From TrEMBL:
Residues 42-66 have a biased composition (Polar residues). This is Uncharacterized protein. Residues 1-83 are annotated as: Disordered. It comes from the Eukaryota. Residues 13-24, 67-83 have a biased composition (Basic and acidic residues). It comes from Pseudocercospora fijiensis (strain CIRAD86).
Length: 199
């Protein structure tokens, strides 16, 4: 997630001992083909000469080191429990704020109307009742959309905790409203099943 933490698969690129000039690459390969080191047998005869194809000089067009790339079979790096708890608490607070704003919007609208009436009595220019109704409707729609988004982000963060086997913070053990980190159901559901025979 957006942090500066590096993946555990990250490897520092190899440090170059000296800079190579791009224009000398082809010449280096030709020199390898013409004057490459020769392999000798025990009797001193030449058995093989290295060509440009077997040159070990790096090309300027060499692809990225495999250590810096994630292969399809590489496992994804999981977030730490601390990061998962932080995300969960952040989205939980966001959800509570969204709920408060939506549920208490009528009180906010009443204060706005009272302020409008005071400005009207003072001879100031104010919005009409119809305009205020439209503003309140649009604000309710906006708060509703925000609440839906906050709920989705909260439950995604909660699911990530449970999948990692981490108990969500704020669970109430004594009331049996504790999320089971193993299979994502509440202990109270288990009690209902035992007492009534169904959930």
């Amino acid at each position: 997630m957006g942090s500066g933490r590096r993946s555990s698969f990250w490897r520092p690129p190899p440090r170059e001992t000296q800079a190579e000039k791009p224009e000398s690459t082809e010449q280096s390969l030709c020199e390898d083909a013409d004057e490459g080191p020769e392999l000798y047998s025990n009797d001193g005869t030449v058995v093989q000469s290295l060509s440009a194809k077997s040159s070990v000089r790096p090309s300027n067009h060499t692809s990225t080191s495999p250590d810096l790339e994630r292969t399809p079979d590489s496992p994804e790096v999981r977030s730490s429990p601390e990061k998962l708890r932080y995300d969960f608490q952040m989205y939980k607070t966001q959800l509570e704020d969204a709920q408060d704003l939506l549920w208490n919007r009528e009180e906010h609208f009443d204060r706005e109307r009272q302020a409008r009436d005071e400005r009207l009595r003072a001879g100031q220019k104010v919005k009409t009742v119809a305009e205020i109704d439209i503003d309140e409707l649009q604000e309710t729609q906006r708060l509703t959309r925000w609440l839906i988004q906050a709920e989705e982000e909260y439950y995604n963060a909660k699911s990530a905790l449970l999948e990692a086997g981490v108990q969500p913070t704020g669970s109430d053990v004594e009331s049996d409203f504790v999320d089971d980190a193993d299979d994502s159901y509440r202990r109270s559901m288990e009690k209902d099943f035992i007492v009534t025979g169904h959930c």
